[in-house]
Amino acid sequence: LRDTGGEPVPQSPAVLNVALAYALPAGDDEGRRIDSAYERLLEPLAVWLAEHDLKPGCASVPGAFCDGRFNLTLEGRKVAGTAQRWRRSRDGRPVVLAHAAVLIDDWREHMAEVVNRFYHACASDLRCGADRHLALAERLRAAWSEAEQLPEHYRRVLGWHGLEIGARAASPPRVLP
């Protein structure tokens, strides 16, 4: 268990991991940097879902694994969890790595079972429920194929706010089927 907060987050081929790294833009309120990073991470996903006639939200979902107030939700159920880590760059600017784990395929039962076994092994009373989650493939046909649009979608939506998203990556971005 981490002293920085959070709970177990199961990973599997059913999960799309989205990461956004940037230095705090000049003029941003450093006191709002945590909220701003989550907003920048989630807005492109929310707009993308809305363009597919889905109604995303951002809220805590009690009973979900690794619940937090910046969960991406559909129908009151958790679709994606978020996290972030801040550091200072060499020139002293705050730099963030913001992350979303988006559940694409319906592995909810198995994932909740793994987390609950972990809680049990740690003698914790915490438990999560598969019914507190929703996989995008349950509402969006060809979810993995559709998700291939996300890098360009991030560039477009964050560009509305004057943020330029570069194409710097160690390897070409890809979405696992």
Summarize the structure.
The protein is built from 4 helices and 5 strands; from the N terminus they run βαββββααα.
Give the total of beta strands.
5
Number of helices: 4
Question: Could you tell me the strand content as a percent range?
Answer: 15-25%
Helix content: 25-40%
Integer-rounded radius of gyration: 17 Å
Largest sheet, strands/sense/barrel: 5 strands, antiparallel
Please list the strands of the largest sheet in the order they lie side by side: 1-5-4-3-2
Low-confidence stretches: 167-177
Averaging pLDDT over every residue, what do you get?
A: 88
Shape: globular
Helix/strand-derived category reads: alpha+beta
Order of helices and strands: EHEEEEHHH
| Separation of the first and last Cα atoms | 30 Å
Protein topology:
Layout: E1 15-23, H1 33-51, E2 56-58, E3 72-74, E4 77-88, E5 94-103, H2 108-121, H3 143-147, H4 150-159
What does it look like?
Strand 3 and strand 4 (77-88) form a beta hairpin. It contains four helices and five strands, in the order E-H-E-E-E-E-H-H-H. The chain is globular, with a radius of gyration of 17 Å. It is of the alpha+beta class and 177 residues long.
List keywords for this structure.
five-stranded antiparallel sheet, alpha+beta, 177 residues, 5 strands, single chain
